[in-house]
Design a protein that fits this description.
With 246 residues, this protein is an alpha/beta fold. It is built from eight helices and seven strands, in the order E-H-E-H-E-H-E-H-E-H-H-E-H-H-E. It has helices at residues 19-30, 43-55, 70-81, 106-134, 145-149, 155-175, 200-203, 215-225; strands at 10-13, 34-39, 60-64, 88-91, 137-142, 180-187, 237-240. Strand 1 (10-13), helix 1 and strand 2 form a beta-alpha-beta unit. 44% of the residues are buried.
Length: 246
């Protein structure tokens, strides 16, 4: 409950135990949301995020499940969705497994696409049903500059994120009449575990702002898209990349 006695809205964030996902969860908690926080297996990191959310006055329900598993998604979410419908869904779960296509293993292709695209499909299909009934909701898909431009060594990741951009636009058109807004946020080079081994001398020259972004800078854009200030924005891709792709 908030100070006025009305129930707090719920935000479901996938891949929320670290990096951009954790920053988004904290930002939404600050904005007055309770969290359903999905993650795969980083229990300590997820518990730390839940502690931060509690300190901000929110309630965090930890949901460890594999977004790419139909059985996991159904068993974890279906019982909760019988009781409540999130106002916000942030599809953030994803990972990179880089390598040149000529030497790429089949599992490196299929697993990267499965977590990003199957995860989006399985989670969103369940959640959007309640949003349609309530005639409200916000769906934010976290994509990547790699899905806009294509990057060598990331054919699988680029394909996954480009597919998610297309899905964002198609879903936005499907559900707009029910007042559900669907947008994508596209981070560039952000200070996370994914970029910790990338040589700074190679990437800083291609970023006009001359630095990497922070997870919090991505989270603030998500926060805006989930707010009443963004009530006429849907089907859009908003880049947070320091100018590295314009």
């Amino acid at each position: 409950m908030n100070s006025g006695g009305t129930p707090r809205r719920i935000a479901l964030v996938t891949g929320g135990s670290r990096g951009i996902g954790a920053a988004i969860a904290r930002s939404l908690a600050r904005d007055g949301f309770d969290l359903w926080l999905n993650y795969l297996n980083r229990h300590d990191a997820a518990a730390a995020v839940a502690g931060d959310i509690a300190a901000l006055g929110g309630v965090c329900r930890l949901l460890p499940f594999d977004v790419a598993s139909p059985e996991n998604v159904q068993s974890a979410l279906a019982p909760l969705l019988e009781e409540a419908t999130p106002f916000v869904l942030v599809n953030n779960a994803g990972f990179a497994r880089d390598g040149l296509l000529a030497g790429m293993r089949g599992e490196d292709w299929s697993q990267v696409l499965s977590v990003t695209l199957d995860g989006f499909f399985l989670v969103t299909r369940l959640v959007v049903m309640g949003m349609l009934r309530k005639r409200e909701g916000r769906i934010i898909n976290i994509v990547s500059t790699s899905g806009q431009t294509g990057l060598p060594g990331q054919v699988n990741y680029s394909a996954a994120k480009a597919g998610l951009i297309g899905a964002t636009k198609a879903l936005a058109a499907e559900v707009a009449k029910r007042k559900i807004l669907v947008n994508a946020v596209s981070p560039g080079f952000i200070e996370t575990e994914m970029t910790k081994d990338v040589p700074r001398e190679r990437i800083l020259p291609i970023i006009p702002l001359g630095r990497l972004g922070t997870p919090e800078e991505v989270a603030e854009v998500v926060s805006f898209l989930c707010s009443d200030r963004a009530s006429y924005i849907t089907g859009q891709l908003i880049a947070v990349n320091g100018g590295s792709y314009m």
